Amino acid sequence: MAHIHYKFSSKLSYATVVFDSPHITLSDLKNQIMGREKLRAADCDLQITSAQTKEEYTDDNDLIPKGSSVIVRRIPIIGGRSKSSKTHKV
């Protein structure tokens, strides 16, 4: 079994995602992290950066090799509605 270590930029320790191939796509990695961390795709997106090279993965089809370590940042959905933006009738 292959694995990727990930860490949110605000945390000190790494967690691990396990998968069965020599690499994982960025979209699959995001889905697994969101599931493990109980995040909703409607609330935010994840910015994934290589911990070794500081290169940001941007294409959902990017292949991330097994054994990699990545840094994760939550970013707001652009153009999405936040709960505070609801209008109230007077």
UniProtKB/TrEMBL annotation:
GO terms for molecular function: ubiquitin protein ligase activity; zinc ion binding. One of its GO terms (biological process) is ubiquitin-dependent protein catabolic process. Residues 4-76 form the DWNN domain. It comes from Gouania willdenowi. Gene3D superfamilies: Phosphatidylinositol 3-kinase Catalytic Subunit, Chain A, domain 1. This is DWNN domain-containing protein. Pfam families: DWNN (PF08783). The keyword Metal-binding applies. SMART domains: DWNN. Transmembrane segments: none annotated. One of its GO terms (cellular component) is nucleus. Keywords: Metal-binding, Nucleus, Zinc, Zinc-finger. It is found in: Nucleus.
